[in-house]
Amino acid sequence: MASWLRHTAIKFPSHDALPSHDTSPLLDTTKTTMALPTPPASTTLSSTPFSPSATLKSRLRDGETLYGLFLCSFSPVIAEIVGHAGYDFIVVDMEHGYGGLSEALSCLHALAASQTPAIIRLPECSPMWVKKALDLGPQGLMFPMIHTPELARQAVSYCRYPRTGVRGVAHPIVRASKYGLDDGYLDRCEDELLIMCQVESEEAVEKIDEIVAVDGLDCIMIGPNDLGANMGFISDPEHKDVGQMVRVVESHVLDRRAESDRRPYLAGFAMPNDGPSELKKRGYDMVCGAVDIALFRDAVVEDVNKFKKIA
């Protein structure tokens, strides 16, 4: 970003300089330069009020198993409800969900009411999506379809400011830094961000040792549905061969984690034949149990069926 981020010089004519019946604009555009400031010391707040008492990464470091939900409806009302329900995190799903960045922002606002951490799943691994998503202020980013260590390294670099990465700089004006009022943002943002890469193909499974070794990668998320489709079981993600592939990824991640201070963490999505409690028993750090749309669908179908049976 250019120097417009650093200084503001919007100049207004003094009251005395204006004739009593002057109809000219109050703002002299010939003397105006558009720029964005670092807030003055008198309005700069400390970082403490903006930091949850425990971030997702700090809870994972402490050995907690976290339980979350995928939000695909992009309904702020549903986001607020699931936040108050007590989930440890909510994945705002921009890969398959029905919203863009503006709708994701509304969901993050709703989740803030319960201080529920948000993870944004991106549509794809690209620097444009990453910088826009990070500026919204989620605690984590989930990258789909990471098939190679090269892609994993790219994902990490998109999340880092220069010189260790390529993230664009606009921190004085984005929600992630409380629009520049959080003076500790730059010191914390990269350490607190949870970077998750999804393993969803046979190629990724074959290269899992190289992927988990990528510096800066925090968590491997196994995607059983896409993995099954990639293996030829699009209608049967619960096939035993898919389950065996999932176990291969699990063992490699858990072995690596044992050697490197619990990282990368292991995350997964519960399936009908492999529920949340089973994943927890096998050592998963993060478990996603459902999708908001599916929960609502099942509830309304059950409600209608109950009435039809009585009527």
Automatic annotation (TrEMBL):
SUPFAM superfamilies: Phosphoenolpyruvate/pyruvate domain
HpcH/HpaI aldolase/citrate lyase domain sequence ranges: 67-298
GO cellular component entries: cytoplasm
Entry keywords, A to Z: Lyase, Metal-binding
Organism domain of life: Eukaryota
GO molecular function list: aldehyde-lyase activity; metal ion binding
InterPro entries named among the record's database cross-references: Aldolase/citrate-lyase_domain, HpcH-HpaI_aldolase, Pyrv/PenolPyrv_kinase-like_dom, Pyrv_kinase-like_dom_sf
Stretch forming the signal peptide: none
Database matches in PANTHER family: 2-KETO-3-DEOXY-L-RHAMNONATE ALDOLASE (PTHR30502), PHOSPHOENOLPYRUVATE CARBOXYLASE FAMILY PROTEIN (PTHR30502:SF0)
Family affiliation: Belongs to the HpcH/HpaI aldolase family.
Record's protein name: HpcH/HpaI aldolase/citrate lyase domain-containing protein
Species this protein is from: Nepenthes gracilis
